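Here is the promised in-class demo. Please do not try to memorize the tokens; focus on the logic of going from shape to residues.
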């Protein structure tokens, strides 16, 4: 279900049939079965109902709902820690299998935890005791409110968290400034790829660059600060376009960076074309995951196949890509090299950096072997 297609949930309360609009930015379908829950609902019962696909519409104290959600998460994690007895196969799963099992488990956990629902009035007031003021956060995520609705508490906490990110921003050493991500736009918390773009050798007097899939606008801002006279940053997503424009304005770079809506390339050619596509081939399970998962490597292949036609003679394309997909067995290195060659491109150079994010060194992570080996690269490509 697309988040903007109206849907409704139905339940019985005080012997009356009730209904409300359903809202889910992750595209989760409206729960078919809904029961009322409050401060007296035991966590074990709530967990059993949630696992069965029965949603709990909360009528108690808001802070108690948060505590119940934590209790559900603990139960989900304990359950996930005890693997079911499987007769075969005996062999340990490959990393690709481990990755798919991990995603499956995460998806199941998310579905279960999304079963605790919160009511909203049309102006984003939550009609519960001790409920926080969330109007600004909801306006940023959803736009202007126009009718009462119900959404999952877990989604609301994500909306509140995104509002904090947007308010406080993310420190970007390469810019000596902060970038403020919007709800649904991937936050540049993995700074190693930004640093690669800041450090890669730039042709003297470079006057124009394209940034394909701008997101928050962080790479366009880095290129502009490095002295490129004009950067055209593209994205297809409306939230990303608003976010990039706001960040460019905050950094006072609107004279140098133009943000335009386009599927991949703007019109024309440039001496430098930069792209940081999603790093893993796969199907996103929510809108935010489009920054991580690239279905059938569509964006990666689209960038490579269209690059030569958008490069000026002697120009360079910079592809920023992690090799995590290779370590997970999702996309072999040979396939990437074949796509580069088939697009009429050659590799001029490759600059590598090891990630420093905490998960790279977390031995408890089920994908630790792949994350520990991961390298992020800036591929310097030119027309063959």
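The designed amino acids, position by position:
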């Amino acid at each position: 279900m697309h988040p903007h297609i109206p849907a409704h949930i139905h339940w019985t309360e005080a012997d009356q049939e009730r209904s409300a609009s359903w809202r889910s930015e992750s595209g989760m379908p409206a729960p078919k079965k809904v029961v009322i829950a409050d401060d007296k609902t035991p966590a074990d019962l709530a967990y059993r109902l949630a696992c069965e696909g029965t949603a709990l519409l909360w009528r108690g104290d808001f802070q108690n709902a948060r505590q119940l959600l934590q209790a559900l998460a603990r139960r989900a994690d304990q359950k996930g820690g005890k693997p079911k007895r499987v007769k075969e196969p005996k062999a340990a799963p490959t990393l690709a299998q481990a990755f798919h099992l991990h995603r499956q488990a995460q998806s199941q956990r998310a579905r279960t935890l999304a079963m605790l629902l919160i009511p909203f009035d049309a102006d984003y007031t939550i009609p519960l005791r001790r409920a926080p003021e969330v109007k600004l956060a909801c306006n940023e995520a959803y736009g202007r409110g126009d009718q009462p609705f119900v959404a999952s508490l877990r989604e609301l906490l994500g909306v509140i968290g995104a509002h904090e990110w947007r308010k406080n921003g993310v420190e970007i050493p390469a810019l000596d400034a902060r970038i403020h991500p919007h709800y649904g736009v991937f936050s540049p918390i993995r700074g190693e790829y930004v640093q690669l773009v800041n450090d890669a050798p730039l042709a003297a007097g470079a006057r124009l660059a394209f940034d394909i899939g701008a997101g928050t606008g962080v790479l366009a801002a880095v290129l502009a600060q490095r002295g490129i006279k004009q950067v055209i940053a593209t994205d297809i997503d409306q939230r990303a376009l608003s976010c990039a424009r706001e960040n460019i304005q905050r950094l006072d770079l609107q004279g140098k960076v133009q943000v335009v809506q386009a599927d991949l390339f703007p019109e024309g050619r440039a001496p430098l074309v930069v792209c940081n596509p999603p790093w893993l081939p796969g199907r996103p399970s929510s809108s935010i995951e489009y920054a991580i998962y690239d279905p059938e490597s569509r964006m990666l292949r689209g960038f490579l196949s269209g690059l030569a036609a958008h490069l000026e003679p002697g120009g360079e394309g910079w592809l920023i890509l992690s090799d995590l997909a290779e370590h997970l067995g999702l996309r072999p290195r040979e396939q990437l090299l074949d796509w580069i060659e088939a697009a009429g491109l050659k590799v001029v150079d490759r600059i590598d950096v090891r990630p420093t994010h905490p998960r790279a060194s977390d031995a408890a992570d089920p994908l630790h072997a792949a994350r520990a080996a991961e390298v992020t690269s800036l591929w310097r490509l030119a027309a063959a």
